[in-house]
Structure formats: structure tokens, C-alpha cells
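User: Predict the full complex structure for these chains.
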Amino acid sequence: MQHETYQRLGEIRASVGMEYGKILQKILAISLLETKVESLVERSVQGIDLEMVIGGETCAFEVKTSEGDTIKLSRKDIEGLDRLVEAGNRAYIVVLTNGPLDDLIFARYHPGEVPVGKELSSFFFRAYQEPALQKRIKSTFPVVVDKHAQTAVEGRQGGLDKILEQYAEWGRA
Amino acid sequence: MRVLDELEARIRKRGVRVEERLELLNQLRKSDPSEGNGQEQLNQRLAEFKTAIQSAARAIQKEIR
Amino acid sequence: MSGAPFPVRPTCLEIENFRGFRGACSLDFAQDLTLLMGECKAGKSSILTAIEWCLLGTKIVSSTSTGIAERGDWILANTEATGETRVTLTLVVEGGKGKLTRTRALDAKRNAPDQLELTLPGEQLLTGNEVEEWLEWTGMPNWDTWKQAFAQHQESARERITDQADRSYLIASMLGLSDYRDLSAMLKKVKPKELEECAQETLQHLAEDQQRARQTPQQEVNGIQASLQRLNVSATQAGDAELELRRKALIAEALPVGEAVGLSAEQLPHQDWSASEVHTWGAGWRSQVNAQMTPLRQELGDLEGKIRSLTSSHEALNPKRVALADARQQLEGLRSKHGSPQDLRAQRETIAQELSALREQRREQGELNNLLREALGVLKAGGRTDQCPVCTQDAGGLEQRLQEQVASGGDDAIQDQLDQLASRDSALSSQLQQLEQAQAAFQGTEDSLASLEKTLRGQLPPGTQEEAGVTDLLAALLAQKVRLEKTINLADENLAGMTGKLEVFGLLLNLRAARERAEHRAGDLSAMPQFATLQDKIDEAAGFACDLIALGNMARELEEEQSALQIQAVNQSINHYMSMISPGFEKVVSVHQKHTATKLIYQLVDSEGKNLTGTLNQGALNSLSLATFFAGAQFRVRQGLPEFLVLDDPVQSLDQAHQEGLARAVKEFCKLAPVIVACLPSHFTRELERLKSPDDRHCKVHGSDPIQIEEI
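Assistant: Here is the predicted structure of the three-chain assembly.
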């Protein structure tokens, strides 16, 4: 991750506190919308935060952020992701830990590979990275962070929702 | 060994990183686990990865220090 | 030889000088049951131990290896033996019979290796490690397997079910999970966590390095600004404008000095020089100026000397002239008074001659007086004072005349003359001295004046008048001195201030460079190609770690599934033997597998899931241990592995009913694989005798010396 982007995210986190996870989710959503997806929907069920359609294929994202260097998936998260995969969807865990050199990781979820309730570092998820998705968001994410950092700090989720609503492909379930 | 055959079937069934895991399995097949050779080979590979990471890091440090 | 398992089993045992056996002894084993009966210390257990030693070596006498404390004190060789200890086991192997012989020298030290030899069908001979490899390859037991599935030891009858590790190992073997356990154990010993830690540590250090690379230039700027502040140049002032101002000032101050001290054009700073060039020039400025100043200072010194010399010469002239006139006057006065020195010397010469004559005269007079005194003395001595003592003529009044002559010697007159002459000479000498001194003073003054005049003339230009020349020259010299002093002062002032000015100038220059460096901070690591390479390496390592973890998890899953499948069969087998050995046992024994964080462990539980090993009495525990023992051996037989049982006094804590049950169990197992039992005569042995079949062999072991084995 670029240093400036890391610093911006740090500033956002310092300002918004507990809301950081949700706010990052929305920034991520904006970044994905900028890559010209067919549709992107925000969900609020266990195991899925965002659902995206691209090339006719549905991809579900569970976004996990951390102030430290590990994240954890609960049994409900895992069960939610398992259901998605069973239904024929591609499921991803989007991991952002707080190390200065940590990058956003889009890790493909496979049933049986992720232990329940265990603290997992970004290192664990690297093996499951999907290079195509990583590349897709690499160019838009830093720009979106830079552009909307102020909105994130001042307008919080509501402010970012207004930006999301400007995209025709955006929806909320 | 039967256990390695069953492991291969399981790897294929799960369908995750199949090629890489089968290669690891083949390495285990070539040595007898009960003799500890496989463990030595795995530890050697592990050491090689560590060396590669540290070497790549030194190249960066040389640049920024 | 095929790669498939072969049920290797013993057929004959030859013992020589082993424990209770002094000398040689042999025993043939039955195909089914070999029963060795005898009283205590007969040597029954030694026979079974001999089999162990032959197969497994001296580890059987280590308390650590065996887990049996009392074995640590065992001595293998017979204490009265005079030769080596040897045990030979004849085995049925694939293709025929083999002979396994282990030998130990009489005086071998405890840690000394045994000699091991194996003769296989076709006269193939293996020795040492080759034998060990063959034993392993054929599936012959190591100590753990021996203890679990081959031998029932008196000392540890129940451990196979009471010790968690032994129990799990045995049950895992029964479940056919050894390979699974071995694979899991091996994968566990490789630590993928080390890769994660290595990656995290590496990234952490790089982040710190990047942080430092960003902070260092700014710290440098802060440091220089602080130094300038101490020199009264504020941070706001310390910019390019100030640098330019000082650059120009340094040049402007230096140029007149350089020209004044005579530096060449190449040595002088140029107006169009950059700040860096001026700084470099400034470093050498002091030494250049000082080099020019040295001759200038020298010149000034010389000049001052000249001025002093001229002034003092000129000022000393008139007094000297006055002194000369005085000296002349004094000399002339003395000359006129006393005459010339030559005259005075002549007079003194004359006086000296007169003095000499007078002194001669006085000497003569003195001699005459002495004669007269002598004559007077003779006269008085002769008694005739009026007679000449020489010619004896009468001389009246001779004595008186002689006395008068002596008294009137004439010395006084001469002396007076001498005194007068001496006095006159002394006066002449004094006058002469005065004249000579006055002459010398005059001459000295005259010479001194001449010298001064010469010196002065030398300082003046030729042909110049003295007074005017001195004045003009002095003026010129003084003017030159003023010019030199001005140049030197100018240079000194410049140098005095230059050090401080150059220091500030240098700091301003460094500050500019440091600010530039701080502005162009260390670039983002994420933009470096080397960082992309590092990320690739970490990704590869993460993949390897992930695969290791996944394989370990899968191996464990497989072990669980395999164990779930086989448990039913194992339960059946254990319960079968338990019901035989302990017919009244009401509980149903089940194997229960329990997950820990890293492995599966096994317990024996009842139908309610309660742990049996914690609740049974000694007899029931022994029975259950034996039942598990038989069940485990049965599984090995099914896999075609070598199997034969060795039971040493298995009837501990068993009542008659259980002993009968055990006998039945032994007889049933005999159908699968050979059994060798050593026991005191008991209900158990009687039951075995009752159940004896043609393929059994019952022997009595006599504890005589030497031990005898008699078939009964």
C-alpha cells in the first residue's frame, strides 16, 4: 500500500474509531464501483458484507479490518461463507490489517481452509489471493481514499452513502 | 503408503491449490515419513523460503539506508 | 524376497552364558503354544528375556528405553561365565529359515555394542546395521511395539492401558493408524509459523527503516537550524536570500584585501561564483592571505628598523660633535700645560738614568761602609785600636776615624736625591697618563663621530645633503610604514571576521541541501521493484505454509475418519477377548477417541462413556490389558506382519476363573500365531495342560546349575 494511502487510512481510523470497519467497507465499495462492475450491493448478513456481479458472476465479500495484525472469523461468518459457496458463488474475505506495509488482500474463500475463531494474520490469507481482483482495485483504491478521506471523517457512513448513491450500479439490500 | 494415496484424493476433492499440494505430497512419497527424511526436506524448503525473504529484504534496505 | 509382509516367527532358541544360564542350552518352540513352567528362579523369565535381547539388543536393560525401572540394574552375562554371551534365535522367514545371533564379549563395557549376525536362506549373511535394517524392513517390532503387542511383562502388566501414550499407540496400531500418526507427527515437526514470523519481522524492520529514512532528513534540517539559531540566524532568515546576501558580502569584503596583500586574480573570488564555489574558496582564504601577509609583516619590521636606525643616528650626531670639541679642547690644554707626551717621556728617561747612577753610587758607598765596619770590628777585636790590623802601623785615632767615616756614609744625601728624582718622575708619569687618556678620549669620540656620519651617509641617497636627506627619507619611510600597516590591519580584520562568517555561510549552504533532501523524501517502498520481489517471496512462503497446514489438517481428518471406521472392529475384538478372560465382566468396552489441539488420543470407556481404567480393580485391569494385548496382536496377524506372543507370568491378580479364561484366550490365539508362556505352576498351567494340543509343547525349567529344560 502507498504510504500516503496508509497515512490517510490512519487519519480516518483515528477520527472515526469503531466505525472504521464500516467506513472502509464503503470506501472499498466505491473503489470497486470505480472499476466498472455490473452491480454492487451492500448486505448485512453474516458472512457477507458486499455482493458484486462482474462478468455475470456473483462475488461475495466479507470485509475484515483490524487495528492490530490479525483478524478472526466467527462460526457464523464461516457458515455464511460456506452457504455462499454451496450456492455456487465465489466468496472472498477482504483483509486489511494495520501494519504500515500491509496491503489490502482479496482472499478467495474455500470451505475447510479457514479455521473458526482463530486469530489469523494477513500472511495466512496471502496464499488465497486472487491476483485479478487485487489488480482491479489497486489503481482505484488509493485514489478513492485520497478523494473521500475528508468525507469519511466529516460525513462518516452517511457521507459516504451519499457518494455511493451516485453510482447507478450501487444498491443496498 | 495408503495414507498418502488417501491424502491425494482429499487434495483433489477439496480443489484448493491442487498442483502445489500434490507436489508437496510427491516430495513426501519419495521419502519414508517414518524415517524422518520427509521432515528434513520440508524443513529445508522452509529454510530456503526464509532465506529468500531475508535476501529480498536486504536488497530493499540497501536502497533506502 | 517380496516386499509384502511375512509373518516371521521363532522356532528355536539357543542360549549360552546369558543371565541364569551358565554354559549352553537350547529350546525348540512349538508351532502353537510353548509353555515353560518352573518354580521361582528356575530361569523361565531369562528364556523370554533372551528372545528380547536377541531381537532388540542392550536397550532392554535400560530403564529409560524400556520404561521398566528395575531393568536398569540388570546384568546380561552369567556371573560365572568364562566365555562370551550368545543367544541365537532360529526364525521362519520368507524362503526358509534364518538364524539371528547376538554375541557379547565377556568383559564388554556396558555401552559397548553387541555383535549381530543374521544368516538367511541361500547362505546370505548380514551383520551389524544390515541386520537392524532387515529386522525393521520385515516388520519385526521395535521396543514400543514389542511392549504393546508382543510381550506381556510382569513389571508393566497394565501400562498398555493405563499409560495414555502407550494406550493411544496400541489402539492406533489396532486401528491401522500408524502411518497416519507418523505423517501427522512429521508434518507437525515442520513449523510453518516460522515463515509467518519471518515475514512479519522482515516487514516490520522495513517499515522502521522507511520511517527512519523519512525522518532523518528532517532531523538534519532541524539540527542545522538550531546551530544557526545559536549564531543568531533565525530559521525564517536562513533562506536562499540570506545565502545570496552573504555570498556577495564575502566576495566584496575579500576583494580589496586580496588586492591589497597582492593575491593574483586567480586567487580572488569571482562575483559570479555559486555559493558552493564561494564556500570552497573560503576554506583556503585564510592560508592564502596569511601567506601574503608574512613578507608584508617582515617588510614592516624592516621598515621600522630603518626608521629607528635613521632617527637614532641623526639624533646621536650633534652630541657627538660637541663631545669631540670638548675632548679636543681638553687635550690641547694639557699639551700646552705639560708639553707633548714625547717631551714627558724624554724627561722621564733622563730621570731614570740619574736614578740609576745614584743607586750605583749608593751601592758603592754601602760596600765601603761595610769594609769600614769590618775593619773597625777587626780593630776592636785586635785590641789595638790605633794600629792598622793590616800593616800594623800605628794609626792614632784610627777607631775614631773609622767610626766617623761609618757614621757619615753619605747615604742620606744620596737618598734625598733619589727621593727627589722619584717624586719628579711620579709627577711626570701622572701628566703623561692624563695626556694619554685625553688623547684616547679624543680619538674615541672622533672615531665614533666618524662612524655615525658614515652610517647616516649610508642611509641617505648619494649626494644628498645630510639634514635635508634625513628629513626626506624619514618622511618617505614613515609614509611607507603607514601604508603597510593599513594593508596588514585590513587583512587582519578581514581574517578575524571570516571564520564566523564562513561558518554561518557553510551552515546556510548545508541547510539548503538538507531541505532539498527532506523535500525529496525516501520514496514509497510500494513503488520499488525490489518490494514487489519481496512480496512475491512472501506470497510463495505463505503458499507453502498454507499447504503444510492444510495437509496436516487433512491427515488428521483422515486419521479421524479411519479411526471411526475401525473402532467398531477393535471394540469387537477387545470385548471378545475380555469376555473370554473375564466371563463375569458386565461392562462393554469401547474405544473413545478424543481430540486435543494437536493430536488424537484414545481412551477405553464403558457404555456410559466413563473412563474404565480409572474405575476397575487390579484383576479387571489385568484382564482388560490382556484382552487389549490379544486384540492388538490379532490386528497385526491380519495385516500379515510378524507376530508371536511372549507372556511372562500373566496370571497376576487373576483368580482361578480368570486364569481359566486366560488359558482359553491363549489357546484361541495360538491358532493365529505362536505363543510362548512362562509361568509358575498354577491353575492357569493346569488348564493349558488340559487344553493341550499336538502342536503345543510344555516344558519344565529346572533351576539347577546348569539350567535344564525338560519337555513334559
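The interface with chain B takes residues 179-180, 182-183, 186-187, 189-192, 194-195, 198-199, 202, 205-206, 209-210, 213, 522, 525, 528, 530-531, 533-534, 537-538, 540-541, 543-544, 546-548, 550-551, 554-555, 557-558 of chain C (CB under 8 Å).
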